[in-house]
Design brief:
357 residues; mainly alpha; 12 helices
């Protein structure tokens, strides 16, 4: 448990201090955010604010995890290393997207096919590797069965599981990316979800069948406590980053941060066997993504009419006249309710001892 506290603390200090340095360096180099002309006019004042702050979060998380492992004289697990691979890999895709935006001074970075191609490479590699490295119980980091709060009692072919992993990672990373439109919204909301996964990992470890035998114990998860250590590092790092990212933001996380955080959420859901529960825990991200899907679908079906004034949903409320801080706080409240509901469902399954998903 010391590793949890150390990882969270190092993550917090890493971004609290490191982001301040990053703001100075990025500002000197002119690596500022470009603002879409078709967005809310209030965002034009944010033009030039340093971006790519997600790079600081990623570095802080990686440092925090390995520092915690070193100080507790413990070896990294396969599950944690795969989760860090996912975080860094998608962060690299986002970094290239952010850098091209800055270098070419345009609001669009990587071409959509190239960007999605990068996500596919990282997600498929993660999916394949996560089915390897079984422990002495035969459990790999991921399972060949889909899960809600536990795995369902049937397995599907490895190829379909890798495809499912791709859908989860691409969907969640893009969902966080769509949410990252207001100061502190994505960082604060992600922090709650990763905090929840820290608790999930701790609980699964404490109720491990070799420690606490019984009908409700967990036996199918490979490295729950080490996954909680990574989740704690990310939670702490987002706490520190939010100091600089809250309104008025002095730095944005950019696609570097949003893609990596979304991918890490999906990775945690996959490896803690709570895949479908992520829809509840990340209910805010799902809601914002659905608003974009609904907007596009309605626009095409009605030949030009709009369901919302603007999508994603947070910008609709901006155009209705809501203050940015008001939207962020209310969306944080919604996210908190979703996280509490998800944790309640997770705990209720254990109390009731329901088998399967």
């Amino acid at each position: 448990m010391r590793a949890l506290l150390l990882a969270g603390g190092f993550g917090l200090i890493g971004t609290l201090v490191g982001t301040r340095w990053a703001i100075t360096i990025l500002a000197k180099k002119g690596y500022g955010q470009l603002i879409r002309d078709d967005g809310p006019t209030s965002h034009h004042t944010k033009r030039g604010t340093p971006t790519m702050g997600g790079l600081v979060v990623i570095i802080a998380v990686v440092f925090a995890y390995f520092a915690a492992k070193l100080l507790t004289v413990d070896s990294p697990s396969a599950s944690a290393l795969l989760l860090l691979f996912l975080l860094v890999g998608l962060g690299l895709v986002g970094f290239l997207d952010d850098y091209i935006k800055i270098a070419k001074q345009r609001s669009l970075g990587l071409r959509s096919k190239t960007k999605f191609g990068g996500q596919i490479v990282v997600a498929v590699t993660f999916g394949w590797l996560s089915l390897q490295f079984p422990d002495d119980r035969g459990n790999g980091p991921a399972s060949q069965a889909i899960s809600f709060v536990r795995v369902f009692d049937w397995e599907i072919p490895a190829v379909l599981i890798i495809l499912w992993v791709l859908v989860m990672i691409a969907g969640t990373s893009n969902a966080v990316n769509l949410t990252d439109g207001l100061d502190g919204l994505a960082a604060g909301s992600s922090m709650m979800v990763f905090g929840a996964y820290t608790l999930v990992g701790i609980w699964q470890n404490n109720q491990f069948c070799r420690i606490t035998p019984g009908r409700q114990c967990y036996n199918e998860i490979r490295d729950p406590l080490d996954l909680a250590v990574v989740a704690a590092a990310i939670t702490g790092a987002l706490f520190g980053f939010l100091w600089w990212n809250a309104s008025p933001a002095r730095i944005f996380m950019g696609d570097t941060g949003s893609l990596s955080l979304g991918g890490a959420m999906a990775g945690l859901a996959i490896m803690t066997r709570t895949e479908l529960l992520l829809v509840v825990l990340g209910g805010l991200f799902a809601m914002i993504t659905l608003s974009v899907i609904a907007q596009v679908g309605y626009f095409k079906a009605t030949k030009g009419k709009r369901l919302f004034r603007m999508a994603p949903l947070q910008h609709h409320f901006e155009l209705l006249g809501w203050a940015e801080v008001t939207i962020v706080i209310r969306f944080w409240i919604i996210c908190g309710i979703c996280v509490a509901t998800g944790l309640g469902l997770f705990y209720a399954q254990w109390v009731l001892g329901v088998s399967g998903g």
